[in-house]
C-alpha cells in the first residue's frame, strides 16, 4: 500500500496565493521539481500542462489533482499547494480550487498510481480533513494531517 507520507516532504507543501491556474501549476511544478525522483523538469512541465489542456484535473469540492506518469520519473512523488483564495480551474462543479496535489509517477506504476489517486480523492472528500488542510497555518500542519489519516 502506498503511504502518502512516503511520497511527500514538508518542503514540497506550500500555502500561497495565485492569480490563476497557470500560476498555481507553475508553483507546484517548482516544488515537485525539487524531488530527487524527477529526472527531466522540462518534460514534467510539458506533461502537466498537456494533461490539463485535455481535461481539467479538478475532482470537485475545490480540489485538483494534476498527475502524470513519465519514463523520467524514478519513483512516485507529490507536491501540495493550499491556496489562500480559490482560483478558476475549469472545474466540472464550477467551484474554485483551493487544494492542488500534483503527482509524478514512473511510467510502469499503473496500479500504485491509481491506488494513490483513489486514496487522495477519498481522503479529500472528507469535509473534516479538507477543512483542516484549508485552515492549516503552515506546511507541517498539512503534512501531519495527511500523515495521520
Number of domains: 1
Question: What is the element string, with H for helices and E for strands?
Answer: HEHHEEEEEHHH
**Low-confidence spans:** none
Portion in helices: 40-55%
Percent of residues in beta strands? Answer: 15-25%
Give the CATH superfamily.
Mannitol-specific EII, Chain A
Q: Structural class from helices and strands?
A: alpha/beta
* C-alpha termini separation: 14 Å
* Average pLDDT score: 94
How many helix segments? 6
Major β-sheet annotation? 6 strands, mixed
Q: What is the level 1 CATH name?
A: Alpha Beta
> For the CA atoms, what is the radius of gyration?
14 Å
Query: What is the CATH architecture descriptor?
Result: 3-Layer(aba) Sandwich
Number of strands: 6
Assign the CATH topology. Answer: Mannitol-specific EII, Chain A
Write structural notes for this entry.
- The chain is of the alpha/beta class.
- The protein has 6 helices and 6 strands; from the N terminus they run αβααβββββααα.
- It has helices at 4-7, 21-32, 41-54, 110-124, 127-134, 139-148; strands spanning 13-16, 58-60, 63-64, 67-70, 77-87, 97-106.
- The protein is globular, with a radius of gyration of 14 Å.
What order do the helices and strands come in, and which of them pair?
Layout: H1 4-7, E1 13-16, H2 21-32, H3 41-54, E2 58-60, E3 63-64, E4 67-70, E5 77-87, E6 97-106, H4 110-124, H5 127-134, H6 139-148
Parallel strand pairs: 1-5, 3-6, 4-6
Antiparallel strand pairs: 2-3, 5-6
Helix pairs in contact: 2-3
Amino acid at each position: 500500500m502506498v503511504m502518502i507520507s512516503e511520497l511527500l516532504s514538508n518542503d514540497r507543501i506550500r500555502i500561497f496565493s495565485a492569480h490563476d491556474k497557470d500560476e498555481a501549476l507553475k508553483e507546484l511544478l517548482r516544488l515537485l521539481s525539487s524531488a530527487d525522483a524527477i529526472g527531466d523538469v522540462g518534460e514534467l512541465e510539458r506533461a502537466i500542462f498537456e494533461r490539463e489542456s485535455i481535461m481539467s484535473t479538478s475532482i470537485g469540492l475545490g480540489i485538483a489533482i494534476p498527475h502524470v506518469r513519465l519514463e523520467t520519473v524514478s519513483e512516485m512523488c507529490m507536491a501540495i499547494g493550499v491556496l489562500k483564495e480559490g482560483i478558476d480551474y475549469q472545474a466540472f462543479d464550477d467551484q474554485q480550487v483551493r487544494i492542488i496535489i500534483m503527482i509524478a509517477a514512473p511510467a510502469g506504476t499503473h496500479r500504485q498510481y491509481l491506488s494513490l489517486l483513489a486514496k487522495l480523492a477519498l481522503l479529500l472528500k472528507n469535509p473534516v480533513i479538507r477543512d483542516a488542510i484549508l485552515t492549516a497555518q503552515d506546511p507541517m500542519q498539512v503534512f501531519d494531517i495527511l500523515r495521520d489519516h
